[in-house]
Amino acid sequence: MCKSVLCTSGLIGRSWAMLFASGGFKVKLYDIEQQQITNALENIRKEIKLLEQLGALKGTLSAEQQLSLITGCSNIQEAVEGAMHIQECVPENLEVKKEIFAQLDGIVGDDVVLSSSTSCLLPSRLFSGLAHVKQCLVAHPVNPPYYVPLVELVPHPETAPTTVDRTHALMQKIGQSPVRVLKEIDGFALNRLQYAVISEAWRLVQDGIVSPSDLDLVMSDGLGLRYAFMGPLETMHLNAEGMLSYCNRYGEGMKCVLKTFGPIPEFSGSTVEKVHQAMCVKVPDDPEHLAARRQWRDACLMRLARLKSQMPSQ
Description:
Layout: E1 3-7, H1 11-22, E2 26-30, H2 34-53, H3 63-67, E3 70-73, H4 76-80, E4 85-88, H5 94-105, E5 113-116, H6 123-126, E6 136-141, E7 150-155, H7 161-173, E8 177-180, H8 190-206, H9 212-227, H10 232-238, H11 243-258, H12 269-282, H13 287-310
Parallel strand pairs: 1-2, 1-4, 2-3, 4-5, 5-6, 7-8
Antiparallel strand pairs: 6-7
Helix pairs in contact: 1-2, 10-11
């Protein structure tokens, strides 16, 4: 049976562990702190058992079968023995990540994929100087990974095409939706789109065009409903008689609006206070309320994922 290794046992590492186990892969959670591993395994057990009770457990194996595939280890050399894929999930710090990849580079063979979960660090900075750079890439998940299947695959300029192909196939095997980012760019694809939306949302609130609560409604009860099932390009295609028709009909209007977009916001000062107060009216920022709202979000995502799986593919 193939084996995957997750470096660190934090939230993203636990989610990856559950996903790999759902695909029938042996998983070894690695962390330098044994107590962190113990806590992670206990959290995973609770989550997988709950998912099974809710009928939302991924894969064809039972909860107990999946749990039997996940173990922990505080010795990195022992952890990677026999691994075919290593998914790094350490904190988003370049030097910390480079240190762990330098360690891995010295102990893995030529057939192991070395993958980072980073959301923003470029592969050319992460993997530079490694002997096994051809086996390295970024596989960036979306939080929470168990409920949002997208994974961005971003290669280093020297990454072998077979490394990307193998990782793409593996992600599909565990039920994720991998996309190939063909060359590295700051923010990859997802965060560039996300930051574009956040930036204009901020400007609209900052300029007094719309309130923070109404701004969120524009997405949750407007654009977001469509985008849950199709992307912006297909939406354009369907909102006219095809893409050429859409661009011919609306292109000049779009350019006129885009020219009115303002500068990059500072995300500080009176606007951040205004947005913060509005968000706290809906969800107070104490740990209990935030955790409850995240649970509600995850439950919604679970139901949406179930609905999407039931829809006929086109």
